[in-house]
Specification:
There is one protein chain. The protein has 218 residues and is mostly helical. It is 57% helix and 3% strand. It contains twelve helices and two strands; from the N terminus they run ααααααααααααββ. A two-stranded antiparallel sheet has the order 1-2. Helix 4 packs across helix 6 and helix 6 packs antiparallel against helix 7. It is elongated.
Amino acid sequence: MQLATVNDLIVFNKNLSKDNMTAEETAILLTNPQVISNSSMLQEILHNLDRENISLYLEAFTAAAIKANLTDSQATTVKEAMFNAVFEAIISNFSSLTSDNCQSLFGKDLLPLLPYIQEIHIQQLPTNISCSCYQGIVYTFCMAYDLLANKTTDIYQLYMRNYLIQQSSDTGIACSTTNYTTWVEVNLCRFMQLATVNDLIVFNKNLSKDVTGNPSQS
């Protein structure tokens, strides 16, 4: 089995079609322990996923994994590989991201799989994008905040903080908005709790420390 290709599996099973496998058929392939242990085969299968319906594949695999009695380790291996496949496809389009498609591309495709993001992915997130595009990415992270566990710190420190410092270098205000409440909501949202007072002042020159050490608008 370790030497078989996806095409071999399709020849062996007439019910499979490489170009038109349903989410359920793909999930069955992905629950095979020999496929899970064969990274090349796993990548080949995941390369054909329809990113527009990634949540369907994830749901189908989760159900199939339970039925096949996969271990947590096996299921995690597949889900991490699924995230990698989708992320690699998206990263190739990062340079062409616009304000209109940024949240749709990043959010719709990656949201169901964000718990499997790793530091190496965070370091590849784009910084040469508009504020609205950045805010779309942040919005997606905020939607998944409770599922990200200890990865929230890496996301803030390695991506959000760096982006906001970069954006504040010219005007002193990173991604300016009409008021402080909106500014926090669109640029930091729940990650606000990870920012230090000094961070906030660097991001927004209109803020200053009051006597309590808390940021306030000057």
